[in-house]
Write a structure and sequence with these properties.
- The chain is 44% helix and 19% strand.
- It has 133 residues and is α/β, with parallel strands linked by helices.
- It has one domain: Response regulator (Rossmann fold, 3-Layer(aba) Sandwich), CATH 3.40.50.
- A 5-stranded parallel β-sheet has the order 2-1-3-4-5, with helices on both faces.
- β1, α1 and β2 form a beta-alpha-beta unit.
- The longest helix is centred in the last third of the chain and has 15 residues.
Amino acid sequence: MTTEITRQTILIVEDEISLRNALRDKFTREGFLVFDAKDGEIGLAVAIREQPQLILLDLMMPKMDGMTMLHKLRSENEWGKSVPVILLTNLGADDKMIMKEIEEDTSAYYLVKSNWSMDQMVDKVKETIALSL
């Protein structure tokens, strides 16, 4: 009898190439199968096609921002209604309008990028995936 080990899958949607590459490399080293996209438009297509266990989603991006992608994912796709999403932002509490919209979507958690180390992000992703199983 063989035991198949299933790798955890994650989609990183981030327009800043250096951060996207750093996150992809870090999660790959941690054993994740990583998909990535440079904007919400591509991210939505990859999410629906690959159906990762979790999506790390930047808020401010060209073509389609993170909130638009999240709303489309949640409303237009059955799988997308329940996939865990962690929003990445540089916004702080002073950006009240956007933060209110994030907080109203209780199906997403958000991290302020500058407040979290790569190791802390990995831990949060692992914790979130474990809670969703």
